[in-house]
Amino acid sequence: MHEHDLTDAFVVGGGPAGLGAALGLCRQNHSVVLFDSASYRNSSSNVSDLRMHMVLTWDHQRPDEFRAAARSQLQRYERFQYVPVEVRSVQQTMRTISSGTKSESVFVAVLADGTERMARKVILATGVKDVFPKIEGFAESWARGIFHCLFCHGFEERNAESVGVLAVDDCADVPTALRIARAAHQFSESVTVYTNGNAQLGARLAQRAAKDKWCTVNTLGIKRLVSPETTASSSPAAVELEFTDGTVRKEHFLVHKPRTQQASAIPAQLGLEMTPDGDIKVFDAMFETSMPGVFAVGDCASPHKFVGYASTAGGFAAAGAATQLQAGY
User: Fold this and answer.
1) 249 by DSSP, 3-state: which?
2) FAD/NAD(P)-binding domain spans which residues (predicted)?
3) Which residues are CB-neighbours of 17 under 8 A, at least 6 positions away?
4) Sheet with strand 222-226: strands edge to edge
5) 327: helix, coil or strand?
6) Of the CATH numbers 3.50.50.60, 2.60.40.10, 2.40.10.220, 3.30.1490.480, which one belongs to the domain with range 133-255?
7) Domain ranges, ordered by start, for the chain
8) pLDDT 10s digits, 48-85
9) Residue segments in the chain with a per-residue pLDDT below the cut of 50
């Protein structure tokens, strides 16, 4: 293998974390290839004009415009390469570099078109997928009338007549449901927590929230959710809840934080250690994984799944990879 065939580092994933990692490596004059499958967690067919928040100078802007601006700025670095293709697999192997006689450890990425690329370090920014509750209509209402984070969404719907919290799956415990309800109360004088038939949880919630007159608990089983064609910002009732007893309730929006799973098979292929929540486990401030030379940042490796944290983490991982490259390991 020739030296010019070997890149200093791969970044797998073209979201905020991957873009931040690529920029950090570029600033240290390392060769870096950014692979981008163009599959993003915040891409939703339900909302044509999705906006991002909690990012200084980019608040209430489109995520695709943010990514495009970052890619444009990276083009000024001559050792940067952007490859809009999915990485199917990454494996560690030993290869002999033509400039020497010893074999060294490298990472081989197999792309969707069947080609292979090699690098000394890998930064995974492969993201996660949301795992929706098994409730009919949930997916169709997602991002339009169901929000997962009230820092990212909710302000534009302030002064709503009533909103709801869906206390199912990972949100089906008293502290979590009440924390979300209190956050939702910032945007509405009336909040209802829906337990989808979980009477025991409902009783505990009602006891804990008894002094909060703005909060009520509904323990009816949910048959399905219906979201109108209009967006939440233009509809006084963004979500209808149809219950198993035939009754119907309307809410301006619902809040629920779904479970997530890894969006890529690469962490499993590499045998990386995972957290109990299914995120890639990282071990230090530089976000290195259980496999030396492999770093992981962004949603795939953190419970803090928002843009600002992801892009900053990418920079730290770049510093870790650069330090190792410059030390010769």
Assistant:
1) strand
2) 8-304
3) 125, 297, 298, 299, 300, 310, 311, 313, 314
4) 222-226, 239-243, 248-251
5) helix
6) 3.50.50.60
7) 3-129+259-327, 133-255
8) 678 999 999 999 999 999 999 999 999 999 999 999 99
9) 230-236
